[in-house]
Amino acid sequence: MIREITVYVNNLGEVADLNETGIIRVYSKDGNQWNVVRELPLRFYRKEEKKDISLDALSIIEILGSCRTFVAKEFSELAYKVLDSMGVSVWKMDGKPSDFLEYILEKEYEEAQEIKIIEKVNFDKKKHEIYPTKFNENGYYILNLKELQDYNVGITSKQVLKPFLNNEEFCELIVTCSHIPNWLEEELNKLNLKFNYTKAGQNDYIVVINKSRI
Fold first, then answer.
1. Residue with more model confidence, 147 or 207
2. Which residues touch 77 (CB under 8 Å, ≥6 apart)?
3. Strands (DSSP E) found in the chain
4. Where does the pLDDT of residue 115 fall: very low under 50, low under 70, confident under 90, or very high at 90 and above?
5. What pairing do the DSSP bridges indicate for beta strands 4-9 and 22-30?
6. How far from 43 is each of 117, 177, 181, 195, CA to CA, in Å?
7. pLDDT above 90 for 72
8. Residues β-bridged to residue 35
9. Domain residues of the chain, as ranges?
10. What is the structure's pLDDT at 34?
């Protein structure tokens, strides 16, 4: 759970626009109390004012530390892109930090929990998909072998493909893989199946296996 929230404020301690001169303040929650643990005066220069924003970005990274929640009144497109590229959650708020720190903390926690659930559901779903996917009623199948092995550590191409090739009634199977399994050609010859392949990238191959007998 996040314990720090960064807020861009003006000299009155209210949330400021990132196009204005202000102070980056990192608030940390200790018990029921929010305290400023570090701060940095900053002017977020617009692109037309300063071509190289790398030093500003480095200053922001340094003051943020492990904090990944940033609050301001308004964000320029450039500021948003810089913060987003750093994996920072951006919030637009108004008023004083005491008005919204607890609210943001609660919402960030809820979102983090939702993301965990979504990731787990997607992972479990993909983890159990260890069989080629049928994509039409004419017996055409597809298998992303790279993704399958990423989600199922220890599963070999032979464990997945041999049962399918030997038992499934299919017309054509398209396999995407990082390399062509060294056992595959011999097995296909035994089954009198046609196949061809093409290199789709530096470490990507597409293998097409056809049920039509040789």
1. 207
2. none
3. 4-9, 22-30, 33-42, 69-72, 89-92, 133-134, 140-144, 172-177, 193-201, 204-213
4. low
5. antiparallel
6. 39, 49, 56, 62
7. yes
8. 28
9. 4-119, 129-213
10. 94
Residue 99 CA to residue 93 CA, distance in Å, equals: 9
H or E element at residue 181: none
What's the confidence (pLDDT) of residue 206? 80
Mean pLDDT, residues 29-52: 74
Q: Which CATH number fits domain 4-119: 3.30.420.130, 3.40.50.2000, 3.30.310.10, 3.40.50.1100?
A: 3.30.420.130
HSE, CB side, 13 Å, CA atoms: give it for residue 27: 24
With 0-12 CB in 10 A as exposed, 13-18 as middle and 19+ as buried, what is 116? exposed
pLDDT of residue 56: 61
Average pLDDT, rounded, for the chain: 79
> How large is the C-alpha radius of gyration of the chain?
27
Predicted model pTM: 0.51
Residue-level length of the chain: 214
Q: Which fold has domain 129-213?
A: Translation Initiation Factor IF3 (3.30.110)
In angstroms, rounded to a whole number, what is the distance separating the alpha carbons of residues 22 and 72?
10
